[in-house]
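Something for you to look into today, if you have time. Just paste the record in under my message, thanks.
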Amino acid sequence: MRGPGGLKEGDGMQQDASLQPELALRIGLAARELPELDVSQLVRVLTALLGAPLTAEKLAGVTPRGLRDAGGAHHLEAVQQAPAARLEAACRALHGEEAATDPVPEPESGPSPEGAIRVACASNTGEELDGHFGACTRFLIYDVAATGCRLADVRPVAEAVSGSGTRRDDRIGARVALIADCQVLYCCSIGGPAAAKVVNAGVFPMKRDVGGAAGGHMKELSAALAKRPPPWLAKLMAGRSAAAPAS
Protein backbone atom coordinates (compact mmCIF):
# COMPACT_ATOMS: atom_id res chain seq x y z
CA MET A 1 0.00 0.00 0.00
CA ARG A 2 1.30 3.42 -0.92
CA GLY A 3 0.96 6.43 1.31
CA PRO A 4 1.09 10.17 0.57
CA GLY A 5 3.60 11.19 -2.06
CA GLY A 6 3.70 7.75 -3.66
CA LEU A 7 5.93 6.29 -0.96
CA LYS A 8 5.03 2.76 0.01
CA GLU A 9 4.00 2.49 3.65
CA GLY A 10 6.82 0.79 5.48
CA ASP A 11 9.43 1.89 2.93
CA GLY A 12 12.37 3.06 4.99
CA MET A 13 10.90 1.81 8.27
CA GLN A 14 12.81 -1.46 8.10
CA GLN A 15 15.79 0.52 6.82
CA ASP A 16 15.49 2.83 9.82
CA ALA A 17 15.69 -0.11 12.20
CA SER A 18 18.61 -1.80 10.43
CA LEU A 19 20.78 1.25 9.74
CA GLN A 20 24.28 1.24 11.10
CA PRO A 21 24.65 3.71 14.00
CA GLU A 22 26.90 6.01 11.98
CA LEU A 23 24.43 6.19 9.08
CA ALA A 24 21.51 6.69 11.46
CA LEU A 25 23.40 9.59 13.04
CA ARG A 26 24.11 11.16 9.65
CA ILE A 27 20.46 10.95 8.63
CA GLY A 28 19.31 12.28 11.99
CA LEU A 29 21.63 15.28 11.68
CA ALA A 30 20.44 15.87 8.11
CA ALA A 31 16.81 15.79 9.26
CA ARG A 32 17.60 18.48 11.84
CA GLU A 33 18.54 20.78 8.98
CA LEU A 34 15.03 20.35 7.55
CA PRO A 35 12.78 21.08 10.56
CA GLU A 36 9.52 20.19 8.81
CA LEU A 37 10.79 16.71 7.87
CA ASP A 38 11.01 13.88 10.37
CA VAL A 39 13.70 11.21 10.27
CA SER A 40 11.46 8.42 8.97
CA GLN A 41 10.32 10.62 6.06
CA LEU A 42 13.92 11.38 5.17
CA VAL A 43 14.83 7.69 5.31
CA ARG A 44 11.98 6.90 2.92
CA VAL A 45 13.01 9.67 0.52
CA LEU A 46 16.63 8.53 0.56
CA THR A 47 15.61 4.91 0.03
CA ALA A 48 13.45 5.90 -2.94
CA LEU A 49 16.30 8.03 -4.32
CA LEU A 50 19.23 5.68 -3.70
CA GLY A 51 17.69 2.24 -3.33
CA ALA A 52 18.03 -0.16 -0.42
CA PRO A 53 20.12 -0.75 1.51
CA LEU A 54 21.38 2.72 2.35
CA THR A 55 25.16 2.82 2.63
CA ALA A 56 27.81 5.42 3.35
CA GLU A 57 28.87 5.31 -0.29
CA LYS A 58 25.34 6.04 -1.48
CA LEU A 59 24.83 8.87 1.01
CA ALA A 60 28.12 10.43 -0.09
CA GLY A 61 26.63 10.91 -3.56
CA VAL A 62 23.54 12.85 -2.49
CA THR A 63 23.45 16.41 -3.85
CA PRO A 64 21.19 19.35 -2.89
CA ARG A 65 19.60 19.22 -6.35
CA GLY A 66 19.00 15.48 -6.11
CA LEU A 67 17.52 15.82 -2.64
CA ARG A 68 15.22 18.65 -3.72
CA ASP A 69 14.08 16.73 -6.80
CA ALA A 70 13.40 13.62 -4.71
CA GLY A 71 11.36 15.65 -2.26
CA GLY A 72 9.42 17.24 -5.10
CA ALA A 73 8.71 13.86 -6.66
CA HIS A 74 7.07 12.81 -3.41
CA HIS A 75 5.31 16.15 -2.78
CA LEU A 76 7.26 16.92 0.38
CA GLU A 77 7.30 20.71 0.67
CA ALA A 78 9.76 20.55 3.56
CA VAL A 79 12.37 19.39 1.04
CA GLN A 80 11.07 20.97 -2.15
CA GLN A 81 10.86 24.48 -0.65
CA ALA A 82 13.83 24.27 1.70
CA PRO A 83 16.41 27.06 1.33
CA ALA A 84 19.53 26.09 -0.60
CA ALA A 85 21.67 26.58 2.51
CA ARG A 86 19.55 24.07 4.44
CA LEU A 87 19.80 21.46 1.67
CA GLU A 88 23.55 21.97 1.47
CA ALA A 89 23.85 21.52 5.24
CA ALA A 90 21.69 18.38 5.08
CA CYS A 91 23.91 16.95 2.35
CA ARG A 92 27.04 17.70 4.36
CA ALA A 93 25.52 15.77 7.25
CA LEU A 94 24.67 12.85 4.95
CA HIS A 95 28.24 12.88 3.64
CA GLY A 96 29.58 12.69 7.19
CA GLU A 97 31.17 16.13 7.06
CA GLU A 98 31.33 18.28 10.16
CA ALA A 99 28.68 20.95 10.25
CA ALA A 100 29.80 24.53 9.99
CA THR A 101 29.15 26.59 13.09
CA ASP A 102 26.12 28.80 12.71
CA PRO A 103 26.47 31.64 15.22
CA VAL A 104 23.16 32.51 16.85
CA PRO A 105 22.83 36.28 17.33
CA GLU A 106 22.42 37.61 20.85
CA PRO A 107 19.32 39.69 21.63
CA GLU A 108 20.08 43.28 22.58
CA SER A 109 19.47 44.32 26.16
CA GLY A 110 17.62 47.45 27.17
CA PRO A 111 14.11 48.79 26.67
CA SER A 112 12.28 48.68 23.37
CA PRO A 113 11.94 51.93 21.39
CA GLU A 114 8.79 53.81 22.34
CA GLY A 115 5.82 53.00 20.12
CA ALA A 116 7.59 50.02 18.57
CA ILE A 117 5.92 47.32 16.53
CA ARG A 118 7.19 43.76 16.83
CA VAL A 119 8.52 42.08 13.68
CA ALA A 120 9.47 38.44 13.14
CA CYS A 121 12.11 37.59 10.52
CA ALA A 122 12.42 34.02 9.20
CA SER A 123 16.09 33.06 9.38
CA ASN A 124 18.39 30.09 8.85
CA THR A 125 21.79 31.72 9.19
CA GLY A 126 23.08 34.15 11.79
CA GLU A 127 21.19 37.43 11.58
CA GLU A 128 20.15 36.92 7.95
CA LEU A 129 16.65 37.18 6.54
CA ASP A 130 16.94 34.01 4.43
CA GLY A 131 14.14 31.68 5.51
CA HIS A 132 10.93 30.21 4.13
CA PHE A 133 8.25 30.56 6.81
CA GLY A 134 7.52 26.84 6.86
CA ALA A 135 11.14 25.69 6.81
CA CYS A 136 13.27 28.28 8.64
CA THR A 137 15.20 27.23 11.73
CA ARG A 138 14.56 30.35 13.81
CA PHE A 139 12.67 33.61 14.01
CA LEU A 140 14.55 36.81 14.79
CA ILE A 141 12.24 39.10 16.74
CA TYR A 142 12.77 42.84 16.38
CA ASP A 143 11.13 45.82 18.04
CA VAL A 144 10.97 48.57 15.43
CA ALA A 145 9.96 52.21 15.85
CA ALA A 146 10.54 55.50 14.07
CA THR A 147 13.43 56.17 16.45
CA GLY A 148 15.27 52.90 15.86
CA CYS A 149 15.13 49.14 16.21
CA ARG A 150 16.61 46.37 18.30
CA LEU A 151 16.85 42.58 18.22
CA ALA A 152 14.59 41.64 21.13
CA ASP A 153 14.58 37.85 20.92
CA VAL A 154 15.75 34.80 18.95
CA ARG A 155 13.24 31.93 18.85
CA PRO A 156 14.38 28.50 17.62
CA VAL A 157 11.73 26.60 15.71
CA ALA A 158 12.81 22.99 16.34
CA GLU A 159 11.66 22.77 19.95
CA ALA A 160 8.29 24.38 19.25
CA VAL A 161 7.61 22.18 16.23
CA SER A 162 8.83 18.93 17.79
CA GLY A 163 5.94 18.84 20.25
CA SER A 164 3.26 19.66 17.70
CA GLY A 165 2.75 16.21 16.17
CA THR A 166 3.36 15.04 12.64
CA ARG A 167 0.53 16.76 10.75
CA ARG A 168 1.72 19.67 8.63
CA ASP A 169 -1.15 21.89 9.84
CA ASP A 170 -0.06 21.30 13.43
CA ARG A 171 3.54 22.19 12.63
CA ILE A 172 2.52 25.37 10.80
CA GLY A 173 0.26 26.23 13.73
CA ALA A 174 3.22 25.85 16.08
CA ARG A 175 5.21 28.31 13.97
CA VAL A 176 2.34 30.79 13.97
CA ALA A 177 2.05 30.52 17.75
CA LEU A 178 5.76 31.25 18.04
CA ILE A 179 5.29 34.70 16.45
CA ALA A 180 1.77 35.44 17.71
CA ASP A 181 2.96 38.50 19.66
CA CYS A 182 4.30 40.11 16.46
CA GLN A 183 2.51 42.48 14.12
CA VAL A 184 4.62 41.81 11.01
CA LEU A 185 6.40 38.80 9.54
CA TYR A 186 9.29 39.14 7.09
CA CYS A 187 10.21 36.00 5.13
CA CYS A 188 11.65 35.03 1.77
CA SER A 189 8.60 32.94 0.90
CA ILE A 190 5.44 31.53 2.42
CA GLY A 191 2.74 29.19 1.13
CA GLY A 192 -0.86 30.32 0.71
CA PRO A 193 -2.41 28.23 3.53
CA ALA A 194 0.37 29.23 5.92
CA ALA A 195 -0.05 32.90 4.98
CA ALA A 196 -3.77 32.64 5.77
CA LYS A 197 -2.98 31.25 9.22
CA VAL A 198 -0.48 34.05 9.84
CA VAL A 199 -3.01 36.71 8.82
CA ASN A 200 -5.72 35.11 10.96
CA ALA A 201 -3.34 35.43 13.92
CA GLY A 202 -3.16 39.18 13.33
CA VAL A 203 0.32 39.15 11.78
CA PHE A 204 0.97 40.90 8.44
CA PRO A 205 3.25 38.77 6.19
CA MET A 206 5.83 40.53 4.01
CA LYS A 207 7.77 38.57 1.37
CA ARG A 208 11.33 39.64 0.66
CA ASP A 209 12.58 37.41 -2.15
CA VAL A 210 16.12 38.78 -2.08
CA GLY A 211 16.59 38.46 1.67
CA GLY A 212 19.80 39.83 3.15
CA ALA A 213 20.73 41.20 6.56
CA ALA A 214 17.63 41.29 8.73
CA GLY A 215 18.94 44.33 10.58
CA GLY A 216 19.14 46.23 7.31
CA HIS A 217 15.51 45.49 6.52
CA MET A 218 14.52 46.61 10.01
CA LYS A 219 16.37 49.91 9.59
CA GLU A 220 14.49 50.47 6.33
CA LEU A 221 11.23 49.78 8.14
CA SER A 222 12.23 52.19 10.91
CA ALA A 223 12.95 54.89 8.32
CA ALA A 224 9.54 54.28 6.73
CA LEU A 225 7.89 54.73 10.11
CA ALA A 226 9.73 58.02 10.59
CA LYS A 227 8.63 59.41 7.21
CA ARG A 228 5.48 58.48 5.34
CA PRO A 229 4.59 54.84 5.98
CA PRO A 230 3.13 52.84 3.08
CA PRO A 231 -0.64 52.25 3.33
CA TRP A 232 -0.35 48.77 4.84
CA LEU A 233 1.97 50.04 7.56
CA ALA A 234 -0.10 53.16 8.24
CA LYS A 235 -3.18 50.96 8.67
CA LEU A 236 -1.27 48.68 11.01
CA MET A 237 -0.06 51.58 13.12
CA ALA A 238 -3.55 53.10 13.24
CA GLY A 239 -4.97 49.81 14.46
CA ARG A 240 -2.23 49.52 17.06
CA SER A 241 -2.92 53.05 18.32
CA ALA A 242 -6.65 52.34 18.56
CA ALA A 243 -5.98 49.17 20.54
CA ALA A 244 -3.62 50.88 22.98
CA PRO A 245 -5.17 51.65 26.40
CA ALA A 246 -5.76 55.29 27.20
CA SER A 247 -3.24 56.78 29.62
Notes: The chain has twelve helices and seven strands.
